[in-house]
Design a protein that fits this description.
The complex is a heterodimer of chains A (297) and B (357). Chain A is mainly α. Chain A has one domain: ABC transporter involved in vitamin B12 uptake, BtuC, CATH 1.10.3470.10. Chain A is built from 13 helices and two strands, in the order αααααββαααααααα. The longest helix of chain A is centred in the middle third of the chain and has 28 residues. The radius of gyration of chain A is 19 Å and the shape is globular. Chain B is mainly α and 357 residues long. Chain B has a single domain, classed as ABC transporter involved in vitamin B12 uptake, BtuC. Chain B has 14 helices and two strands. Chain B has a two-stranded antiparallel ribbon with strand order 1-2. In chain B, strand 1 and strand 2 form a beta hairpin. In chain B, helix 1 packs across helix 2 and helix 3 packs antiparallel against helix 10. Chain B is globular, with a radius of gyration of 22 Å. The chains are: A mainly alpha (297), B mainly alpha (357). Chains A and B meet through helix 5, helix 10, helix 12 and helix 13 of A and helix 6, helix 11 and helix 13 of B.
Chain lengths: 297, 357
């Protein structure tokens, strides 16, 4: 492989990195507060849908991004009510939300555009051109968000309280923190970042909404959470590595334009993710009270 | 006195289960109805078709129930041991492929079913062992395997195993390796449904009448207590995944050698059944007998969805939405318990107030 194609691969990896990074950072914030949301995929899908619709009908990108983020916030709020206040099983609820989101996505595609598979193209965020490849401004923005999330979690007072809710909720309560409300707010904040990732998928990277737009990325982001050891800065590296597999798949399908082989290339991100999580044991430790409902005495 | 207390406790327990299940279904139907109304369709007709549309073809209804009962067991058995197997989808795909190949090479249905089961079990072993010994989140590894297998099998069928006469289909299961159909007069029933009932009975026996079944339930209930009792909860969780994967693989095999006799190039004959199985398992409260009953209900929804799509031109995915809501609602046992105790307290307070006045 020539040097130029290696450079190409690295630039190509920035596009898949964005949703993986935003999804992982969102999930880290949620998990640090003691809640596990495996409905990342569902949030991605619903936000991608609402953003695509707003972009299609209004052409306003800021509004489309805003609506995508708000969609994530809303789903996060519903999820937190189920998982925190009603003490629902968080894994089961997450599986349900993913299924629900998939159904809504297909129904909305049909109702809005009268199609079953993919929407018409929508207005997208303009890209920078770097070495002949388009790079979205969202790439550096997502990295900045990850750094800010690290600062928030590990260097601010609120971040400390949030982490206390995930490690020792009783102690947090004794400190005067309202554990349930903190978990609700953390879930809403984290899900908004997932909503931003969803918006990025449809109105930036792909440029349309399709029923399979998420393609398991929500779960790769989940893999990255444990890989990063629940650290948003390490998550940048992880998102780039996992994004690299996807770039490799894209690169190979372009180089060997043969539809049947394309199916084989599409497995690269999934096999790559599986191998990485098998080989590298997470050094970090999951929050002690993860997915355990908090019962106030 | 004691038996009276026990009886009243049982009554509360059964009421809770009944409220949980009917409440979840009702909530699901309300959401599905609202979506239909929002889209401008007649919600009453839509819901009617969704729930009862599948009854038109009882044979197909029960056959599909057989497949999703298998993926439901694939979810339930590991869950009883404390592991979330959302890999039933991929285990079913691989089981179907293994069964197809085994049927073609051996010409024997029993060999094909066994091959399907073993393929599913191997996947279960991978997910379970990674979880137990490498701390890999089973949700992540299961989804990665589901997606990988989907594309690998699509590739296998498109590039290698396609039928030259019908290129969207794989080579066919030879006649001698196909499971039969039972006929009573004009009615027919694929043999896979009675086979499913037999497999459910096996699962029930395994869980409630064998040492391994006891160990699985004990490890899930309290790993710490299980360890004190000399059980290795990690090893047990791996066994539970192997058994769960086996059932999902058998489900794929039953599909291929018992119903479709081939795999289509987009896996539509199996697609989504792993996830429907999760709903089935939860509604069946992880009990094999409950699973058998719930599988028929979910099969009604899936078939009803297709019927609704045909008659009303509404995407059949309304059924997915409905299953999603039902799954979310079934995640909330505590909420139902709260509701029931609230009503009971209200009633007691009411009775007390009446006695005082």
């Amino acid at each position: 492989m020539e040097l130029s194609s290696i450079v190409s691969l690295f630039i190509l990896a920035l596009s898949p990195m964005v949703p993986l990074l935003l999804g992982s950072v969102g999930e880290i914030i949620i998990e640090k507060a003691g809640v596990v949301n495996i409905g990342i995929e569902g949030v991605f899908l619903l936000s991608a849908l609402t953003s695509a619709m707003v972009s299609f009908f209004t052409g306003s990108l800021p509004l489309a991004i805003f609506v995508g983020v708000i969609t994530g916030l809303g789903v996060g709020a519903i999820f937190a009510v189920i998982g925190v206040y009603l003490r629902g099983d968080q894994i089961v609820a997450g599986v349900g939300i993913n299924l629900l989101a998939y159904g809504i996505g297909v129904i909305a595609l049909f109702k809005t555009w009268n199609v079953f598979g993919a929407s018409p193209p929508v207005a997208t965020i303009p890209k920078w051109v770097v070495a002949g490849h388009g790079v979205s401004p969202m790439a550096p923005i997502s990295v900045i968000i990850a750094v800010l999330a690290w600062f928030f979690l590990f260097r601010t007072n609120t971040g400390l309280k949030l982490r206390a809710c995930g490690e020792e909720p009783r102690a947090a309560e004794a400190m005067g923190v309202n554990v349930m409300r903190m978990r609700l707010l953390a879930t809403m904040l984290g899900s908004s970042l997932m909503g931003l990732a969803g918006a990025y998928l449809s109105i930036d990277w792909v440029g349309q909404f399709t029923r399979q737009i998420t393609a398991g990325r929500g779960f790769i982001a989940l893999a990255n959470v444990a890989f990063s050891g629940w650290n948003p800065i390490t998550a940048i590296v992880g998102a780039f590595i996992f994004g690299f597999f996807e770039a490799l798949a894209i690169y190979l399908s372009i180089s060997y334009a043969q539809p049947t082989l394309g199916y084989v290339f599409r497995t690269i991100p999934y096999i790559g993710t599986l191998l990485v999580v098998m080989i590298f044991r997470s050094r970090g430790r999951a929050p002690a009270a993860l997915a355990k409902p908090y019962i106030k005495e | 006195m004691r038996s009276e207390k026990l009886a009243s406790w049982r009554l509360i327990e059964y009421t809770t289960i009944a409220v949980e299940i009917t409440g979840s279904i009702a909530l699901g139907l309300v959401v599905a109805g609202s979506i239909l109304a929002l889209l401008g369709y007649d919600p009453a007709r839509g819901i009617f078709l969704l729930v009862f549309g599948g009854l038109r073809n009882p044979d197909y209804l029960l056959s599909r129930a057989a497949f999703i009962a298998m993926t439901a067991l694939a979810f339930s058995i590991p869950l009883l041991a404390g592991v979330f197997n959302i890999g039933g989808e991929g285990q079913m795909y691989l089981g179907g492929l293994a069964a197809l190949l085994a049927a073609v090479y051996s010409g024997n249905a029993a060999v094909a079913i066994l091959a399907g089961g073993l393929a599913g079990a191997a996947l279960g072993l991978i997910i379970g062992a990674l979880k137990a010994y490498r701390d890999v989140n089973e949700v992540v590894s299961a989804i990665m395997l589901n997606l990988t297998l989907f594309y690998v099998i699509v590739y296998a069928i498109t590039a290698e195993l396609y039928d030259p006469v019908a290129p969207h289909e794989s080579i066919k299961v030879p006649k001698g390796a196909r499971l039969g159909v039972i006929r009573f007069g004009g009615l027919k029933l694929h043999i896979i449904f009675p086979l499913m009932l037999a497999l459910v009975a096996v699962a029930y026996y395994l869980l409630y009448h064998t040492k391994l079944g006891y160990e699985i339930r004990a490890s899930g209930f309290s790993p710490k207590a299980a360890r004190y009792a000399g059980i290795d909860p990690k090893k047990t969780s791996v066994y539970s995944m192997v058994i769960g994967g086996f059932f999902a693989g058998v489900g794929g095999a039953l599909n291929v050698v018992g119903f479709t006799y081939y795999i289509d190039n987009l896996l539509t004959c199996m697609y989504g059944m792993g996830f429907t199985g999760i709903g089935v398992a939860l509604m069946g409260r992880n009990n094999p007998i409950g699973v058998a009953l719930a599988s028929i209900f979910f099969s009604m929804l899936v078939l009803g969805g297709s019927r609704m799509q045909m008659l009303m031109r509404v995407p059949k995915e309304v059924a997915d939405t409905l299953s999603g809501v039902i799954i979310v609602a079934l995640s909330l046992p505590y909420a139902y318990r709260m509701l029931i105790s609230y009503i009971r307290i209200r009633r007691m307070v009411g009775v007390g107030a009446e006695q005082h006045s």
